[in-house]
């Protein structure tokens, strides 16, 4: 087959350009990425060979990674005898970034974080870091179990070539033709230092080949099998970088061995930065499963529930059968016990951090709180534990607080925990539905994550205090004692008969557009607001459902009117006169449209709103 020239996927071309021209800080990490990829390739073949031993022919079962500098040719070679790649794999893995959110990644590394190597790796793009130091990269590979080898070549400028290679060995050999000025990566001492620093934890030998001599330069023992006292924080950090394909610092590290009825080792990490795919619809977790140090899979969704998918690391079981298949994992009772143990450990660690004043729990919560809250809706057994870990912004507190703190400072006579949900905290603070609560000093939870529309229905109460949305149902705040003298500063409400006449006129004008019109106890400065009836879909949830085409019709809402507002008091007096219903029709629609605008809704008939507003201004003029 003749040499074939192909183009990179558009996003790969853009990424390569950025790698070559922008991401130059800490260039030595390219070697870590290539060694990590080689280690993963060997892990995959070791697993596949459990059921297909013939795959090990033509390359042996003693897995290792060779790093070979050639000062004369100015090349650095990284080779493994792992699973290898065929033609399709080379195109899919090296010519395409087949991961979600790549555009977001590219946007971020071209913005304020330009030059931040902490970002590369989170999309499986570590291979491309080779172009930081290489003007040309060759990949010679033969997939285990296949006879045909391939050579992939590129200078990273938009195209790559593919050709058959009859001499290719099983695995992958990467030849980096170094750029001018990168000769440090041909020096044996420098390479030893890089491998020792970044890849000492790799569980197979990394061998430096120099002047025909071979030297293993890493300890080649699985880090999780060592005693914690023998492992430095730096080694933990580098193992996290390897297993998570991340470059940030781990926020927390859990290393323990479970013994007794079931035996397994867990080395788990909670990142300090949010992975880009954390809110991908698949909600996959990223723990690697080993059995007796043999890699089994990195896509075992049975190890952790989706709400803990931010955890990275490995689990090594001594009790699972070595030849277990991915299909059998789904129904294995031992795995269910491991899952229970992992969840218990992780939640316990989070609780400890939350209670530690110096534990920086606020950083974790701002990063992963929205994910952890999914457990309130999904994990009935542990929802109380998870709820104690949750933190909430409020109308009173600048820092997110726990529900226990909220309950401890509830007002005299307050029987419920009040919430309001929306897209933005600052916008929520200006909601008219909050005015009466703020006037009395009643604290309200400000909920801005999509999951906040669902978990309150699963919790219903905390310490026997029901959760109640301030945008749903009636708000009778009379029993709650507010600030001293607050009531005396409010103007008198419109007379009862006058308000009844106004409400009747507004109902007549709006008809089925509203479910009801009533006087409000929650409004202070605003003349009107919309609320959902008890049991109806909330205002914010309905908006979210419409955005996802899950709802087409707007449910009729209740229009509440502030009887103390100067405009409403004047309109109430007008409503007592004969023929007021016709005269107030346009005003009723203007009040209704005003309430919809405040809720962030798009008016269905802006032209009619403009006409009514113009007529009203003409009367005033």
TrEMBL record:
GO cellular component, one term: cytoplasm
Region entry A, spans: 1-326
Positions of ATP binding: 33, 37, 80, 85, 93, 100-101, 122-127, 326
Subcellular location: Cytoplasm
Domain of life: Bacteria
UniProt-recorded Gene Ontology molecular function terms: ATP binding; ATP hydrolysis activity; ATP-dependent protein folding chaperone; unfolded protein binding
Region C: start-end pairs: 544-621
InterPro entries for this protein: HATPase_C_sf (IPR036890), HATPase_dom (IPR003594), Heat_shock_protein_90_CS (IPR019805), HSP90_C (IPR037196), Hsp90_fam (IPR001404), Hsp90_N (IPR020575), Ribosomal_Su5_D2-typ_SF (IPR020568)
Alphabetic keyword roster: ATP-binding, Chaperone, Cytoplasm, Nucleotide-binding, Stress response
Histidine kinase/HSP90-like ATPase domain span: 26-182
Stored SUPFAM superfamilies: ATPase domain of HSP90 chaperone/DNA topoisomerase II/histidine kinase, HSP90 C-terminal domain, Ribosomal protein S5 domain 2-like
Pfam families xref list: HATPase_c_3, HSP90
HAMAP family from the UniProt entry: HSP90
Subunit-level organization: Homodimer.
Family: Belongs to the heat shock protein 90 family.
Known role: Molecular chaperone. Has ATPase activity.
Annotated PANTHER family: HEAT SHOCK PROTEIN 90 FAMILY MEMBER
UniProt name for this protein: Chaperone protein HtpG
